[in-house]
Each structure stands twice: as structure tokens, then as C-alpha cells.
């Protein structure tokens, strides 16, 4: 059991949790403005695919990331138009968007790259690993925090920024106002639709970054449906984290930890089903204890019946 | 006359969605550099081209029909059950284990095994309903979470205690069932098994329950207007528990017949990878939760799946074309909900205007 727990486990937890954290923060923003975003998984998959595709085209990681972010943001406008302008059922549209994303990415992968299953190129560069100069030298903290991709650090930074955005900025309170009571917010002259569009686009940007971390950070390849439901896990992390940025950080940390430890246990031939199951059980138990008002509010806005 | 017109317009909308879906599919085919007519012809041949393909399509539709019926029934009562996947898998794994450990074989063993799968799946769905009723745990979220727990637990069952150890390595799976408990094929040399009959019978029974029984009336009332239904003395708790139980049992039946008729064992991922449960949900949505419509749509979606396999075999268009067409269908249908909703709102507004 010695090799099961050590400091590098926390290091790999950070790496595993980054996509979940970013997508989860995206889900949290949407929940704060009253949108229950089930399409996180599809947005993430689109980001992962565009990242790889653009990296093949431009052979430049910054351009690739940018391309993924912009492309996914445009893709998310479908979601925005249907939910915000046409008032379509959020869950139905979200599920459809996930299918559309699987369809488009797989279709393009097979027609453009002529491969089935997975695309990889040994020559292709992945996201670089950064060793932060001073922190690296500190014994324990260095082991934990150093040696991650830029997106992992960006994820931590965005968590902090979002926390202050919701706590201390006017725009942040407007977001909350829209989520708490749409009609009241409208009567106060807040541009509700614009804010909801912003939230969806920001969540798409975050999901795209999470997707790029998956396809260019953790590995350097794209495989069909490679998110494998991570967007839904991120959605659960949003709920467990009560749509609060730090809450989402902690809950996606929990999911990342169980994923990291399961990978180790697999190499030691211990069945991992129960460790992987743990976060969902914890989330259900947590729902008995806290009642997440934002999520429930978001669901109430949903046209069509949810309960 | 009005009634005929009404049902005709109800039929028109899904048809219009299908046309739009096929147009988008055609655009994708052009982008892939293939002739549209030729590709659709291949799709038709892959789905219905000969008797074998036709029966394969019907076979694929079995779990989709049953999961879709479950979703449709709960939706009729106003409950969004996203847990069909977990219920399907639990029904399948229970059936696969029970049938192997029963001391006897034959028809009775089949009935007991399928029924126990249905009961476990039904209770799993009931559990979500109970949490909603008793502790206000949102049904959408709980059914989604319970999926993961069910799928992981089923995976554990076949990778540890009930694993088939005769074949080394590979995907975790349970032991092969006895020949005497396999569901017979409907036609010699095809995959289509008895489960299809079950699916058709379930569709008819469900349509009858919803249309003609008191309970069905209560379900519809509750789904249309919760407050009116409660005012009218309908017991929400009772209707909810029953509809969630039936909803889960239908999905469980889908899993059970798939094990006994198709795979002859429970294979991890065999029911989740093809996304049967989510396709069933789409079928229910496309058909506006009408049982017979759900079954027809399930066969249509299954045909898109098997047809696109034919397309991939014979052209350069990948089978992901079916995912794109299906997604566009759903997006169009969900927008359609809105149009009718907006129309209703406008009408209401006009009425108010007159009365004032």
C-alpha cells in the first residue's frame, strides 16, 4: 500500500481535476444566471477536438488553444439561441447538443483525418509542463504544485477570479440577480438575455479549455467521444459545489482524486468501481444536507416539467 | 373535424423535423464528398435492404423501445426520468445473474429472471421518486447520479464475484447462460428474438393504460396540470410512485431481454456504449410521449443507426452521420415545443384583451 498514497498522487489529482474544474466552473456560471447546462460534455468534446485539429493545421499550441476556445464559443451559440430566444427545454437541448458534438467531431475526424477511433501523431507537441522556479524548490509544495500544464494553473486562477467576480463586482451581482429572479432583474433594467448569452459563452470557453487540457495536456491525441461523460461529472461537481467557485474547486478535487487513485489501484489490480462510485454517493448524501438554491432555481426556469 | 385536423398537425411536426434532419444529413454527405442520393440509398439498404438487415434494425430497436416507453410513461405524469440507463443496466445484470443461479431452466426460469430484473430496476427508479417525494431531492439530478452508481455497481458484479473466469482477460462479463433459457429467435438465422414481441405487447398495454384506464387519466392529469390534478383529488404521491416504478420496470425489461436474447450474458458496456437509453429518451421526446409513437420513433432511430453502418461499409461517409441527424431532429423538436407554447401564450393574451 506504500505506493498508493504519496505526494505525487496529489500532483496527479490536480492534473485529473483540471478539466472537471474548468467545465464545472462553466456549469456554475450558467447555474448562477438560471441556466441548467447539460451540454457541458458536448462543449468539452468540441474543445478537445478543435484543439487537436488546429494543432495539426497551425502547429502552434497557443493558436490551437485559441481556435478551440473561439470555435467552441460559436458552437455554444446554438445552445444559447435555443434556450434563451426560443425558450426550449434546457435538458432536451443540452442532451441534443452532446449528441451533435459527438456526431460532428467523429464525422470530421473520419472524413478529414481519415482515421477511425483515435487520431495521434508522435511528432505532435502537447502542452508544455511548467516548473515554477521558486515554488519548485520548496519541498512539499513544490512536489504538489510544480510540473503542471499552463491550463491547470489557469484553472486555479479562474477559480479565484470568479469567486471575486461574484462577490465584489456589480456585473457579478447582476448575474446573480438574473438567476434569482429573472422578471425582477428585467424590471431593474438589466439586460437579461445579454447576460445569459455571456454566461453560456463563458462556460463554452471554460469547457473548451478543459477539453484542450484533455486532448493536448493529459495525452496528445483525440479519440472518438473522448470526454466519456466527464461533462456530466463536471455538472455533478457543480451541484456538489453549490455553484460556488471554491465549492466547485473542492468537489472537482474530490472527483479528480478518486480518478487518480483509481488509476493507481488499477495498476495494482484492485477493483476500482467503488472508489469511482464514491463521489456520486457523496453528492446524493450532500443533497440531503444542503439544498442548492441556485441549481433548483435554474431548474425551475426550465420550460416543461421537471418534477 | 377539428379533432382530425388536430391529430394531423400533431403528426406533421415530427415529420417536418425528420425532413430537416435528413436535409442536414444531406449537407454533411456533400461535405464528405459523396452523392446524397446514393448515400441515402445505402442507408435505406443498410436498415431495410434485405430481410437480415430489416430484422437487425428491429432487434436494435428493442431496448430503445422499452427504455423509451419507460421515459414516456414517467414524462406523461410530469416526471423527467433521466435514469433509464442505470435501470436498463441493472435489469440486465440482475437477469443475467439470476438466470445462471436458478436451479432449473426453461420458460419458468426465463420468466423469473426477467421479472427479477424488472423489479430491481423498478425499485431503483422508485428510490429516486421516493427521495423526491420525501426529501425534495430533485428527480432529474438524482436519476442522473443513480445511473453512474448502477453502471459502476453492475461493472463490479461482473468483474469480481460473478465474472466469467473461463476466458482470460478481456472485457468483464458474466458466464454464458444455458441454451434452455435463451429467448428464441423469431426467424431462423436472424438476431431478432422474442424480446421484440414483449416490446410490442408493452407498447400496446401502455397505450391502453394511458388512454382507457382511470390510472392513465390520473397520470395525464398530473402531467398536464399538477395543481388542477391535486385539486381534483388525485393523489400525487401514489401516481408518482407507481409511474416511476413502471418506468423503471420497462427499462429493466429492455435490459433483461437483451441479455437473454442477444448477448446471452451481461457484458460490461454492451448496453451503455450504443447509448440505448438516451436514444430511447429521444424517441419519447420525438413522439411527445405517445407510447405507439415512441415505438415507431424508436424503430426509426434504430434504422438510422443500422442504416449508417451500411453507409460506412459502402461509402466514404462515416456512421457518425446518424448522430448528427438524430441531434438535429431533437433540436428541431425542442424548438417546436416552444412554437406551440408561444402560440398558446399569444392566444391567452388575445383572450385577456377581449375580456378587458
TrEMBL record, chain A:
GO cellular component: a single term: plasma membrane
Coarse class of the protein's main subcellular location: membrane
Keyword Oxidoreductase among UniProt keywords: no
GO MF, any single term: transmembrane transporter activity
Transmembrane segments: 61-84, 90-113, 151-173, 194-212, 232-258, 270-290
Location(s), subcellular: Cell membrane
InterPro entries: ABC_transp_permease
Membrane topology: Multi-pass membrane protein
Keywords: Cell membrane, Membrane, Sugar transport, Transmembrane, Transmembrane helix, Transport
Protein's UniProt name: Simple sugar transport system permease protein
UniProtKB/TrEMBL annotation, chain B:
Keyword Cell membrane set for record: yes
Cellular localization per UniProt: Cell membrane
Membrane topology: Multi-pass membrane protein
Record GO terms (molecular function): transmembrane transporter activity
Segments crossing the lipid bilayer: 51-75, 108-127, 139-158, 192-210, 281-304, 324-344
Taxonomic superkingdom: Bacteria
Alphabetical UniProt keywords: Cell membrane, Membrane, Transmembrane, Transmembrane helix
UniProt KW Membrane keyword: yes
Entry-linked PANTHER family: ABC TRANSPORTER, PERMEASE PROTEIN, GUANOSINE ABC TRANSPORTER PERMEASE PROTEIN NUPP
Protein name, UniProt field: Nucleoside ABC transporter membrane protein
Amino acid at each position: 500500500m506504500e505506493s498508493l498514497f504519496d505526494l505525487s498522487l496529489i500532483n496527479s489529482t490536480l492534473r485529473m481535476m483540471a478539466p472537471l474544474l474548468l467545465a464545472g466552473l462553466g456549469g456554475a456560471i450558467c447555474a448562477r444566471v438560471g441556466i441548467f447546462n447539460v451540454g457541458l460534455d458536448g462543449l468539452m468534446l468540441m474543445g478537445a477536438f478543435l484543439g487537436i485539429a488546429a494543432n495539426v493545421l497551425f502547429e502552434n499550441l497557443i493558436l490551437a488553444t485559441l481556435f478551440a476556445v473561439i470555435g467552441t464559443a460559436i458552437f455554444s451559440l446554438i445552445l444559447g439561441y435555443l434556450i434563451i430566444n426560443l425558450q426550449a427545454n434546457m435538458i432536451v437541448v443540452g442532451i441534443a447538443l452532446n449528441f451533435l458534438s459527438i456526431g460532428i467531431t467523429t464525422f470530421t475526424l473520419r472524413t478529414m483525418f481519415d482515421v477511425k477511433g483515435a487520431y495521434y501523431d508522435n511528432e505532435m507537441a502537447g502542452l508544455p509542463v511548467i516548473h515554477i522556479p521558486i515554488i519548485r524548490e520548496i519541498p512539499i509544495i513544490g512536489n504538489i504544485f510544480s510540473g503542471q500544464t499552463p491550463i491547470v494553473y489557469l484553472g486555479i486562477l479562474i477559480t479565484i477570479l470568479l469567486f471575486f467576480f461574484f462577490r465584489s463586482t456589480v456585473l457579478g451581482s447582476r448575474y446573480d440577480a438574473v438567476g434569482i429572479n429573472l422578471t425582477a432583474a428585467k424590471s431593474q433594467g438589466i439586460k437579461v438575455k445579454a447576460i445569459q448569452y455571456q454566461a453560456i459563452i463563458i462556460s463554452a470557453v471554460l469547457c473548451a479549455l478543459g477539453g484542450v487540457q484533455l486532448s493536448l495536456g493529459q495525452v496528445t491525441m483525440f479519440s472518438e467521444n473522448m470526454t466519456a461523460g466527464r461533462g456530466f461529472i463536471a455538472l455533478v461537481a457543480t451541484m456538489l459545489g453549490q455553484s460556488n467557485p471554491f465549492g466547485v474547486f473542492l468537489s472537482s478535487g474530490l472527483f479528480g482524486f478518486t480518478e487518480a487513485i483509481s488509476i493507481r489501484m488499477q495498476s495494482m489490480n484492485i477493483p476500482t468501481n467503488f472508489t469511482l462510485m464514491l463521489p456520486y454517493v457523496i453528492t446524493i448524501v450532500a443533497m440531503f444536507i444542503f439544498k442548492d438554491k441556485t441549481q433548483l432555481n435554474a431548474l425551475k426556469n426550465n420550460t416543461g416539467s421537471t418534477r | 373535424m377539428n379533432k382530425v385536423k388536430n391529430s394531423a398537425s400533431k403528426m406533421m411536426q415530427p415529420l417536418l423535423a425528420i425532413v430537416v434532419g435528413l436535409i442536414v444529413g444531406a449537407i454533411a454527405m456533400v461535405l464528405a464528398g459523396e452523392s446524397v442520393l446514393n448515400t441515402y440509398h445505402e442507408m435505406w439498404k443498410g436498415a431495410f435492404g434485405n430481410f437480415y438487415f430489416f430484422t437487425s434494425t428491429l432487434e436494435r430497436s428493442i431496448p430503445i423501445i422499452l427504455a423509451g416507453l419507460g421515459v414516456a410513461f414517467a414524462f406523461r405524469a410530469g416526471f423527467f426520468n433521466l435514469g433509464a440507463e442505470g435501470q436498463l443496466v441493472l435489469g440486465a445484470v440482475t437477469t443475467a445473474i439470476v438466470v445462471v443461479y436458478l436451479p432449473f431452466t426453461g420458460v419458468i426460469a426465463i420468466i423469473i429472471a426477467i421479472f427479477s430484473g424488472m423489479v430491481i430496476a423498478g425499485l431503483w427508479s422508485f428510490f429516486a421518486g421516493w427521495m423526491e417525494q420525501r426529501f425534495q431531492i430533485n428527480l432529474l439530478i438524482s436519476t442522473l447520479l443513480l445511473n453512474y452508481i448502477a453502471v459502476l455497481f453492475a461493472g463490479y458484479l461482473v468483474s469480481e464475484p460473478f465474472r466469467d473466469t473461463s476466458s482470460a482477460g478481456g472485457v468483464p462479463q458474466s458466464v454464458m447462460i444455458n441454451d434452455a433459457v435463451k429467448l428464441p429467435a423469431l426467424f431462423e438465422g436472424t438476431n431478432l428474438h422474442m424480446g421484440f414481441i414483449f416490446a410490442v405487447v408493452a407498447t400496446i398495454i401502455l397505450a391502453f393504460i394511458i388512454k382507457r384506464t382511470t390510472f392513465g387519466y390520473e397520470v395525464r392529469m398530473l402531467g398536464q396540470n399538477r395543481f388542477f390534478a391535486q385539486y381534483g383529488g388525485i393523489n400525487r404521491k401514489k401516481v408518482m410512485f407507481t409511474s416511476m416504478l413502471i418506468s423503471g420496470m420497462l427499462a429493466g425489461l429492455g435490459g433483461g431481454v437483451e441479455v437473454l436474447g442477444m448477448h446471452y450474458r451481461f457484458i460490461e458496456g454492451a448496453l451503455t456504449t450504443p447509448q440505448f437509453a438516451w436514444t430511447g429518451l429521444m424517441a419519447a421526446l420525438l413522439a411527445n410521449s405517445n407510447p405507439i409513437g415512441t415505438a415507431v420513433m424508436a424503430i426509426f432511430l434504430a434504422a438510422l443507426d443500422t442504416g449508417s453502418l451500411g453507409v460506412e461499409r459502402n461509402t466514404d461517409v462515416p456512421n457518425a452521420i446518424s448522430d448528427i441527424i438524430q441531434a438535429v431532429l431533437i433540436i428541431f423538436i425542442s424548438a417546436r415545443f416552444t412554437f406551440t407554447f408561444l402560440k398558446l401564450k399569444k392566444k391567452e393574451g388575445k383572450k385577456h384583451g377581449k375580456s378587458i
